[in-house]
Each structure stands twice: as C-alpha cells, then as structure tokens.
Amino acid sequence: MNIDFPPPSKGTYNNAGGCRQLTNYLEHEDLERMEKGIYTEGFFNLTEENLYKADIIQDIDSNIGQLLKTDAKFYAIHVSPSEKELKTMGNTEQEQAASMKRYIREVFIPEYAKNFNKGLSAEDIKFYGKIHFDRNRSDNELNMHCHLIVSRKDQSNKKKLSPLTNHKNTKKGAIKGGFDRTNLFQQAETGFDRLFGYQRDLQETFVYCNMMKNGSLKDKLQMQEQELKVSNKPLVPEIELNEKQHRTNVSMDIQPNVQTYGQSNSQPTDKSINQTIDSISGENVFSSLFSILPSIVDVGNPNPEDEQPLRKPKKKKKGRSLG
After folding, report:
1. Domain 2-200 grouped into CATH 3.30.70
2. pLDDT tens digits, one per residue of 174-204
3. Where in the chain do CATH 3.30.930 domains reside?
C-alpha cells in the first residue's frame, strides 16, 4: 500500500486558497469514462456517497477559522494499493471501489485521526474522497487508487490539523500533539491486512521497503538475512550447487594452487574449506561467506610475478691482463 502527501504547489495542489482547482481535476476521469459508457464513482465522505462538487468546495473553503491567508486550508492524500492488494479487494472495479471506500472509512481515516494524539476520532475529520481507476504512465493492468481532500481544521472548525508537521506527540510548548507519518503508514498497512485477511510478504511491508531505501548498509544486510529466513531461499545462487560438486570444484581449483604457491601454512586445506561450506546456513550465511571469500580471492588470483622463473645471475668476465 502506497500512501503519500503531494507537496503544496502553485498548480493543482495549491492549498493556500480554495479547493476548486483540485476538485475540478479529480473529476477529469469521469468525463473520459462517461464518453466510453463506463460507470463512474462520485465523491464520498465518512457516511455519504455521490456528493456534489459544489457542496464539497463550499464545505472545505468555509472551514478555515483563524487561518491566515498564506496558511494551508486543506491537504491532499493519495492511497494506492498494489496490483496484488487490489486482487484481494475484489474481482471487478465495482467490488474494488466498494472495498476501497470501506478501507478509507474503517481503517485509514480512524488511524489518521488517532495519529494527531489529540483524542480525535474519524468523526472529527472533515474529508472527501474520489476514486480513480487509471493512472498515467503506468503499465499495470490494475491502477485503482483514491484521492482524499482533508480539511486543515477539524469538523468543529476549532483545531488545526497538519499531517505535514515535524512534531510527533509533543506534550510541551505551543504546539501539542503532532503527526507521525511513519506510524500512520504502518498502522494503515496492518489495518488493511486485518480487514481483508491479506497475507503480506516481507518484501511488501513498509518496514522492509523503508529499510532498503533509507537504511544503513548494516540494516539492509540484517533485513536481507531476515528475508532469507522467511523465504528459505539462499542469498547467493552458488549455495544452491550440489554439495558434492561444490566440494569437487573446491578441491580441484584451490588445493593445487595452495601447493604451487607455497601458501599451505596460511591457506585452509580442502578439509577446512569443506567444513566451512558445511557450516553455511540461513542464519550464518553472511558471516560464512565473508570468512571464505578472502581466501578464495587470494588463492584464485595469484600474483603473476610469482610465476616468473628465477634467473641465475650472470658471471662477470675477467679482463685480459696487458703485457
């Protein structure tokens, strides 16, 4: 599940003024589908459906008490399921749209409200949603997603709510509460899985994707090791080789080199190498691989200068004596 907050701009997502430009944009797909005789989905909120655009504009644009001229009046949110998630949500566009509205009402908006840490519920959030079925520059067969327009102020027009604030559960100072977007993503994902009985693979989780994108090298290695344990797949394809064939290759390629280059004291024997290979498991695959790779690199890539035969020093010719 991909959830993002488009940054305010001077174009469609300009939120310092009214929301007319954004609501007009959200209706563009309806005209295209109506021309083709395909059904459309109207605007909806927590309890109502097929709402008029004019009513939405009036409701959002009038809920701006105590906001300055340059303040954000609303926020846009995109909620986009993956193709695999959409297949879980239904077999037809109508079924998927109904599931999406259910998810927004029962999971996303309640978690959105709770995440402000101000004792809010879904009923306190003023929002309107619009479902789209196509996405530009996408080759996927299933592209249904949902656009949300969320008012900056709550239903009572008293509390300011910003999902883009950098404060997180602040208890002291002028600003109380805050908003933890990471927590929202995780809770929205968990809620989706619970609502639809979805069996999410590790690679699909927000934690995995966020770690592989923003984590340190150590964190990424730990996550890959966890992936290895879950999937029971070897991290390096060579580990899938037949054990007997692998040992034969090691004996043929490494042992003669040990004898040739006089490194038998510093390099492992074929017995120790085989024991090292035997010890490779899903849990120790990183440490095992890193322990044997240096020896393989050193032995498999000898210094060409070592192959040059030693040359005997030339004897100096004695000079002839005069007289």
Report:
1. no
2. 556 689 999 999 999 999 999 999 999 999 9
3. 2-200
Question: What does the alpha-carbon distance between residue 123 and residue 106 come to, in Å, rounded to a whole number?
Answer: 11
Per-residue pLDDT tens digits for 214-231: 889 998 998 888 888 877
Cβ(175)–Cβ(183) under 8 Å? no
**Residues 108-163 pLDDT 10s:** 999 999 999 999 999 999 999 999 998 876 777 889 999 999 999 999 999 999 99
